[in-house]
Design a protein that fits this description.
Layout: H1 7-26, H2 32-39, H3 43-71, H4 73-92, H5 97-111, H6 113-123, H7 128-142, H8 145-159, H9 162-182, H10 197-208, H11 211-241, H12 252-270, H13 276-300, H14 305-333, H15 344-365, H16 374-397, H17 403-411
Length: about 425
């Protein structure tokens, strides 16, 4: 009989790999403004390395999710961590922006397993409210990862060099690799060895055609990618504009991460007393309040780091409401569909990959934007919230709108 992991180990391991994924993305952020001078390059090329990292992190999730359905979770986790460790080591040796960018892509490509397989190994073991509660706990803890990661990176940068940041990340990856190899038991009960590339594409097409899944997936991707993108642009706001040092600015992000965690924990309590879709609407109200706050201060002609921080705190709380609900709803949306259900690895990969792909596109799109006024931040938040709520209302709330007709309209057919 196949040995099983304890629920406690699975929860701890899922949290660990999720933290590792976000650590990979954010630990080097404090060093980014100074990399322009180190490599003798432009600010746009340095920011482009973030776009490439997020693309690798996002697209690889679909690959890791699909492979985990065929070969099991454990084998894929070991393989992915190995690739990520190699990428971290290469990054620490980079002497040009080109080598740095390629190495970060390798690192992100490997680390992309973290989000998708943390969800998958939990979904393999838990159902319904237990799944929602566990995801809420993980989201609450992992919410602090994007905030803690720059602090770790900033302190290492203060004591040593930016290369040391990636040496430390390499060591963390090796420790996780050890745990995966010697402690983790397979969680996928029935890996599909006959799964082919053609079958994977067919499964994905069925998932993307599922109206309810797409409603929660797009809602989640739009609004949360805004928070992730804020973390990537935050050093340019707080260091370049408000003159914080590399190792002190990142402490501000603890408050933003804490607001995300608070929203997730509050969502966990509300789910016992309130319809989940009403909780999402409450999250949108908080998000719109964030945009309204920035607009009011724009009218007053006031712009300082307190306002930016306050706006992102409200936005973080709204993401905490939206994230665990959409995760659980999207995964469970396919349970009753015989054509699409039973492929939690692929489903989770689309959920996680979508966020990072959205984030990479947004990072690229705003690379040349200098967030030097509160109006720009107001427009940024408003566009994200409007887009997120629109897809939720059209695909989830407004049942009378035919799904195919909606996409035919978008495509102009």
């Amino acid at each position: 009989m196949q040995k099983k992991n304890s629920h406690r180990f699975i929860n701890l391991f899922a949290i660990s790999i999720s933290l590792y994924g976000y650590l990979t993305i954010n630990i080097g952020l404090p060093a980014y403004p100074s990399l322009k001078d180190y490599f003798g390059t432009s600010e746009e090329l340095v920011k482009f390395s973030i776009t490439v990292l997020l693309l690798g992190f996002g697209f690889s999730q679909i690959i890791w999710g699909a492979l985990s359905e065929k070969y099991g979770r454990r084998f894929v986790i070991i393989t992915a961590i190995t690739i990520s460790v190699i990428g971290s080591l290469l990054t620490s040796l980079a002497h040009s922006i080109e080598f740095f960018t390629i190495s970060r892509f390798i690192e992100g490509f490997g680390a992309g397993f973290a989000t998708v397989l943390s969800r998958a190994i939990i979904a393999d073991s838990l159902k319904d409210k237990a799944l929602h509660r566990t995801i809420s706990n993980i989201v609450a803890i992992v919410a602090l990862a994007p905030a803690i990661s720059p602090i770790i990176g900033g302190e290492i940068l203060y004591l040593a060099s930016w290369q040391t940041v990636y040496v430390v990340l390499t060591i963390i990856g090796i420790l996780l690799l050890y745990s995966s190899f010697f402690q983790l038991k397979e969680t996928h009960k029935n890996p599909n060895k006959s799964l082919t590339f053609k079958k994977i594409l067919h499964i994905m097409s069925q998932i993307f055609r599922h109206r309810t899944f797409m409603g929660y997936f797009l809602t989640y991707s739009f609004i949360l990618s805004g928070l992730i993108t804020f973390y990537t642009i935050s050093p340019y706001i707080f260091i370049n504009q408000f003159q914080f040092t590399e190792n002190t600015y990142s402490y501000l992000l603890i408050v933003v991460g804490g607001s995300y965690a608070f929203g997730s924990l509050f969502s966990k309590r509300l789910i016992e007393h309130m319809n989940s879709d009403r909780i999402l609407e409450l999250g949108f109200i908080v998000a719109f309040s964030s945009a309204l706050l920035t607009f009011i201060f724009y009218l007053l002609g006031i712009y300082n780091f307190y306002i930016v921080l306050g706006a992102m705190i409200l936005y973080g709380v709204s993401c905490g409401f939206v994230s665990p609900i959409c995760n659980a709803k999207a995964i469970n949306a396919l349970e009753g569909d015989k054509k699409s259900s039973g492929h939690k690895g692929i489903t989770s990969s689309i959920l996680g990959g979508g966020i990072m792909i959205f984030s990479s596109i947004m990072t690229f799109a705003i690379a040349k934007v200098q967030f030097d006024s509160i109006l720009k931040i107001c427009i940024y938040i408003t566009c994200l919230v409007v887009a997120s709520y629109s897809v939720f209302w059209l695909l989830v709330e407004k049942k009378k709108v035919p799904f195919k007709n909606l996409f035919s309209f978008i495509l102009g057919k």
